[in-house]
Recover the amino acids of this structure.
């Protein structure tokens, strides 16, 4: 099974920045879509941003301008640069991938990492 591994979460002050990263384990030939979702306490999981292997991006409207998603290449990894962080951004951030072509096979369904906690507080 392919596992998605997030890193970069932690405690940051309001107005600060963090950079999250996510990579798939094992031998990866390509990943069609990668991205980030988040789940705040008491709320449902929501889209943050996604990026395709061709570089097309999609953002939650209210996050556009503060968060930037990028990826190295078709294999990944994927990154999320978070600037001007607000307490409302506090959440567990989950890496997402769909269409993984790996040495273990092809995974067309949604794949999720276990999450990394981002806490924005003074």
């Amino acid at each position: 099974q392919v596992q998605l591994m997030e890193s970069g979460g932690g405690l940051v002050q309001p107005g600060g920045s963090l950079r999250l990263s996510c990579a798939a384990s094992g031998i990866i030939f390509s990943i069609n879509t990668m991205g980030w979702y988040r789940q705040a306490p008491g709320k449902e999981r929501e889209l943050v941003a996604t990026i395709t292997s061709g570089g097309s991006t999609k953002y939650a409207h209210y996050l556009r301008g503060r968060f930037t998603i990028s990826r190295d290449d078709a294999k990944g990894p994927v990154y999320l640069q978070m600037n001007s962080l607000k307490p409302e951004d506090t959440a567990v951030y989950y890496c997402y991938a769909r269409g993984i072509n790996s040495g273990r096979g092809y995974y067309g369904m949604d794949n999720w990492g276990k999450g990394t906690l981002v806490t924005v507080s003074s």
